[in-house]
Amino acid sequence: MTNTFDKVAAFSLDLAPRDIPQSTLESAALMLLDTLGITIASGPMDAGRIGRETATALYGAGDPSTAARMMFDGRQVSMAGAAYSAATQTDNLDGHDGYNPSKGHIGVVVIPALAALAETVPDFSGPEALTTITIGYEVAGRAGISLHKTVSDYHTSGAWNALGVAAMAARLREHTPEQLRQSMGIAEYHGPRSQMMREIANPTMLHDGSGWGAMVGISSAILAEKGFTGAPAITIEEERVAQHWADLGHFWQMEHQYVKPYPVCRWAHAAIDAVRALMLDHSFTADDIAKLQVNTFNEAACLFQGMPNDTSSAQYSLPFAVATMALYRHIGVEYITGAGLSDPAVATFLDKINVSEVQVHSERFPQYRYSDVEITLNNGQVLASGDVHARGGPESPMSRDEVVGKFMKFAAPTIGETRAEAIRDACFALLQPDSQFSDLGQHLYDPPHASNPEHTL
């Protein structure tokens, strides 16, 4: 074993806002806002509704000191139930951030965990909130890399992002290093080591396992707080993963997350962006397209190929997403839910699309997400995109204004412009030394209809 845990414990429990670059804290505020937009927009979806109803039915709090309101719902359950329900609904609208090297998602559990934990501890400063978010991202991201570098299966994010939640809980609930060590061991042991490619082959509401990741992380912290013990977390303490923790506190993964412009699996985004760019550059429409060839990496080529009959399949379908972009120049929630799932124009266009794996793109995954497309027009002209990387990450970043615009587009239809603007402003205000988390928290728990009378869940 190594001394890596001591480094992780000091980082998680002792890190101060002044120890973090300002650019990192700004990234934390931006990822907070982006995640909240998806949490809000996913609330009316079936998976979100079921997650909240299940938390109410099964995960109530017998102890008021560990009770928390569910986000954008208001009903009180246990804080594990609150984190579970919000992470489950966020996970089921595939528009939340991610990190290429860990092959998964972090904010989807970090933000629900923060909101749940905040209900059980005294109010804390805005910079402390952003520091806790950063700790969750930095610990979870490295746990994910460690897991994927040491096992053969490709596991869902819930298998490792639970450790980031455990670190956040230990910090806010003032655990000792030994309690943190036990909670991380418990979280890793019980984290859902579910196989991602099973979900890709058969898309369901299981998505990326992050609902259970959030629940396991919170539950593990409380177990350790009460004296329960767990085996050491090998994704932190085993010698062969020490290299993945060596840059903790020096390289800030928080600044290298990607933002999704579309609420579908990011494996499809490079192909979507390639089609979008060609159509913008050459001013043609979907009606002008005779054939569309997508060349991509293996995992993207494995995405669902047919016309989806539910939201989960739509979010894991590369051809469906490409067809939607070609037809409508946009992919929003309305295209992956309701009538969008039976759009005859999309169904017809799917016959024009062929998807193939190309070795050069596969060799660059997971560090990169490249694809290229060739579009044959009805007049016989062939247009080639060349290699295109998915937008939103360090390779092709979205601007701050674009991320803010995305938040408003996703949040305002559910909670109204006024409340969405208040959340937007409060997220960035957390950067100020005199701010408190409650400045934002006051907007996070009431149901949507409290601020948007025309909307009901």
UniProtKB/TrEMBL annotation:
Gene3D superfamilies: 2-methylcitrate dehydratase PrpD. InterPro entries: MmgE/PrpD_sf (IPR036148), MmgE/PrpD_sf_1 (IPR042183), MmgE/PrpD_sf_2 (IPR042188), MmgE_PrpD (IPR005656), MmgE_PrpD_C (IPR045337), MmgE_PrpD_N (IPR045336). One of its GO terms (molecular function) is lyase activity. Pfam families: MmgE_PrpD_C, MmgE_PrpD_N. Residues 262-425 form the MmgE/PrpD C-terminal domain. It comes from the Bacteria. Residues 8-241 form the MmgE/PrpD N-terminal domain. Belongs to the PrpD family. This is MmgE/PrpD family protein.
